[in-house]
Amino acid sequence: MTEFVDLQQRVTSFRLNIRTKETGNSHPIGDLRSIFSASDSICKRRQLRPDSEWKEKSFKSDEGKKPGFLIDSGDNIGSNDGYVEEVVQNSWERADVEAERAFINQYILDQTNLTDNVNRYTVKGVAGVSVKSKVSNKVFEKQMELYAKNISNSLESDCLASNHGAVVEAVESMNDKEVTQLWGSVLPLLSLDSADIGDAELYRSSEKWINFVLQRSTFYLQQMYKEFMETIVESNMELAQRGGVPGVLPLIEAYLNVTLPDFEFQDGVYGKHPVWPVLYNLLRCGESQLAAKVVKTLSSIPNCAVLVGCILNCCDSGLDADKRLKLNAEWKHEGAHCSDPFKRAVYAIFLGIECPEVTDSIENWLWVKLMQCKLDATNGKTQFRKTQTTVCVDCGEDYFVKNGGSYSLYFTALWLTGQIERSIELLYRSGMAHHAVHISILAQQKGLLILGRRVSEFILTQDEKDPIFCRLNFAKLLLLYVKNFELENVEYALNYCFFLKDLYFDKETAGGGNIFEGCVSRLCFISHQTDVILGRLTESGDVQPGLIERFKAAVNTSDIINRVARDSDISGETLTACRLFLMIKRASDAFKLCSKHLVSLISQGTSENRKKEGSEETLKLAYWLLGLKNVDLDVTLKRELERLIQLNIFSAASLTDPFKALRTLQEMKLIPFSNDEMSIRVSDYTLVSDRVKEVMHHVIITLFKVLVQLSRNGSEYSRSDLKQISKVVLLFVAEVNCRFPVHLNSQILQLQSQI
After folding, report:
1. Do 527 and 490 contact (CB within 8 A), yes or no?
2. Residue 563, SS3 per DSSP
3. Strands (E), 411-488
4. What is the largest CA-CA distance in the chain?
5. 545 three-state secondary structure
6. How far apart are the first and last CA of the chain?
7. How far apart are CA 294 and CA 275, in angstroms?
8. What is the DSSP letter of 504?
9. Pairwise CA distance, residues 45 & 109, whole Å
10. Contact between residue 517 and residue 559 where contact means Cβ atoms under 8 Å apart
């Protein structure tokens, strides 16, 4: 991380310094080289692309030499200040792009190897038998594929809609009991209306959120308890003697036939069983109305009159301070000689005291704790925070996972106490990253996630003063998950990156750009599937949409394509950038980039680095651009491109056909070949674009090499004619106030002597 911070700080500092008047005329070649060196070394080391794909400019600052461009004091290429400013701007932009890509890549490469061991969720928790199973890679990959496919279909249908239905459908398709149970605990807390949330941090600390968690979590645990009783009864049909009678009371009676322990009961029976076990199990199932019906049988017992009134009237609203005071006084009198553990448990639920006799599993303990918070109308919020602290701090991972527990069980305890960020991080860390990611996506779409402040942070950051309060690095979590798809299925990778459309990189370490845009740019870069992702331009000029088109209702796809085009140009993929600009109707940018690429080809001149294939592709694109109709374009850009095409033809011909090269340059009427042409060429030179002037020193050098070849090989030109042409050209250079670098001046004089 220090590499990225150091790189960005040096680039930013250098950029600011170079803009000041005092340093505007300096030539900071050493700093530029260090910037490029740092950026290149980081990206190469992170294996972003092979060395052969790097296109670097050579900067020399030898004493006594000017930079390799034409310097003019009049209407020429531009001042030294302008050149340095352009170089610095390009360097800064390139460093930004490479640092951002390397920043993303760092977190992908630094992913922790997670175990494939996934613990099964058990209804009885630590009191039951914890059954572990290894999820095979094949099953794991199938689950990931189902998630990704359903997400893809959902986004393609409507990228603005929630992906809740798509995820639920994927879970159902998995046909896995463990996964179904896991999501069974998750979905209740994701059933709220996102319009009521607003600011996640404020909402999550409000009583409205706490009441929602208490209501939904207790309901889930109550439904799970019913299912658990059904399982016990069905496994012991003969002993249970249910008789096929539907309803909760018959279920409880059958369940008690199997499980009721032998101890001293109090206050009579209801049906065939002691009244307090029946009453407790009705409350445990959330059947408050049936509980009120049963508790009426205790109305004649004065010792528990206050409790009877609470069950009749306060199961939904909770106990105020006055009722709690009266109930506490009643329990002090009654509890001293209470021998019925279920009677003690019912009092405990309303008074917030411990009842170890019935909290024999994590689920039962958690339900009791949540019900105690729910029934405390005065201090419920405080009690809820204490319960959260007990789960995540006092007990923690060691308690829930060891001694027959499981990660799934700990996740459920965290999730049902409203600790969303901590539970997602646990799930990710325990080998169930694919579930963690999709839970976080749905929570983020609901607006429930409390996000980390910086992408460079850990996945989970805990507040130093409040151990309960955590932030989830949602962006980092998804970036790690995208690693599974980015080289094999760019569609899936792009879909998951889309969920980061509203988040931004750290300004200090990665430029502060939009994460989704950065991810799209990187995907195009490493997958080489730009056409698939962004679309392609046909020969007729029509646009065939890419995968990005499915997101046009949520993001400005033109801005994203523009971003990728500029990044491609900075990375040296100028032709790709050209086509992308044309796709978004930015013909002027396309023409400028094509001209820029032609300039780079001319600058390669007759060296071995000049690639014929790249030259032909560039010229083909240039001709195609010139042939476009109904394009709103400055005529000077078109004229500039035409001249650069001709100069490329001249440069290429100089290698094989010097006579053709000379004729091409003559037809351009850019340089005089006789004294009669001098005045008009000097006058016209003021209208020549900066791009063309930028390569004039290459053109002049190449021209002199052509003259040397013609003088040696024999042609229709005599040596005296060729010498005269060279003199006229040199006079022209002097007339337009062009000054060559010293080493080029020497080379020209040497070539002239060989004619």
Report:
1. yes
2. helix
3. 460-462, 470-472
4. 133
5. strand
6. 58
7. 8
8. B
9. 11
10. yes
Residue type, 550: R
pLDDT per residue over 194-250, tens digit each?
888 989 999 999 999 999 999 999 999 999 999 999 999 999 999 988 887 889 999
- Number of C-beta neighbours around residue 484 at 10 A: 19
CB-based contacts of 462, cutoff 8 Å, min separation 6: 469, 470
CA dihedral 70, 75, 79, 85 (to 10 degrees): -100
- Output the CA–CA distances (angstroms, integers) from residue 140 to 137, 169, 180, in the order listed: 5, 17, 15
Q: Which of 183, 118, 115 is nearest to 406 (CA)?
A: 118
Structure tokens at 506: 């750290």
Positive or negative: CA dihedral 484, 490, 491, 494: positive
Question: Mean pLDDT highest for which of 41-50, 163-172, 448-457, 739-748?
Answer: 163-172
The residue whose two tokens read 């409203």 is 418
Neighbours of 365 (CB within 10 A): 22
The C-alpha atoms of residue 55 and residue 58 are separated, in whole angstroms, by: 10
Residue 25 corresponds to which amino acid? Answer: N
> Rounded to 5 degrees, what angle do the CA atoms 669, 674, 679 make?
70
Q: What residues does each domain of the chain span? A: 2-109, 116-197+407-472, 206-378, 483-585, 604-755
Q: Buried b vs exposed e over 367-394: b needs ≥16 C-beta within 10 Å?
A: bbbbbbbbbbeeebbebbbbbbebbbee
CA-nearest of 363, 379, 366, 463 to 421 is 463
Task: Give the Cα-Cα-Cα angle 420, 425, 429 (nearest 5 degrees).
Answer: 150
Q: Which residues are paired to 134 by β-bridges?
A: 117
For residues 254 and 278, the answer to whether their CB atoms sit within 8 Å is no
With beta carbons less than 8 A apart as the criterion, state whether 351 and 328 touch: yes
42 pLDDT more than 70: no
C-beta of residue 520 within 8 angstroms of C-beta of residue 566:
no
Give the tokens for residue 749: 């004089």
When computed from its CA atoms, the radius of gyration of the chain, rounded to whole angstroms, is: 38
Q: Is 536 helix (H, G, I), strand (E, B) or coil?
A: strand
Q: With the C-alpha atoms ordered 714, 717, 719, 723, is the resulting torsion angle positive or negative?
A: negative
- Rounded-to-integer distance, Cα 564 and Cα 532, Å: 13
Closest CA to 184 of 361, 359, 363, 304: 363
- The structure's pTM equals 0.79
H helix intervals, 19-163 = 29-45, 80-109, 137-157
Q: What is the DSSP secondary structure assignment for residue 132, as one 8-state letter?
A: E
Nearest to 303 by CA among 340, 270, 354, 356: 340
Q: Distance (Å, rounded) from C-alpha 418 to C-alpha 225?
A: 20
How open is the CA angle 283-288-292, to the nearest 5 degrees?
105
CA distance 359 to 356: 5
CA distance 147 to 167: 6
Write the single-letter amino acid at 320: D
Model confidence at 52: pLDDT above 50: no
Residue type at position 16:
L
**Phi, psi dihedrals of residue 486, rounded to the nearest 5°:** -60, -30
CA atoms within 13 A on the CB side of 730: 15
| Range from 81-90, 171-180, 485-494, 600-609 carrying the lowest mean pLDDT | 81-90
Which secondary structure element, helix H or strand E, spans residue 164, and what is its range? helix 164-174
**Phi-psi group of 246: left, alpha or beta (phi > 0 → left; psi -120 to 50 → alpha; rest → beta):** beta
For 160, residues 6+ apart whose C-beta sits below 8 A from its C-beta are 553, 554
Is residue 133 within 8 Å of residue 120, measured between CB atoms? yes
Burial group, residue 542, by CB count within 10 angstroms (0-12, 13-18, 19+): exposed
Structure tokens at 108: 């992908």
Of the listed ranges 1-5, 313-317, 744-748, the least confidently predicted one is: 1-5
Contact 285, 222 (CB under 8 A): yes
Least confident among 30-44, 419-433, 479-493: 30-44
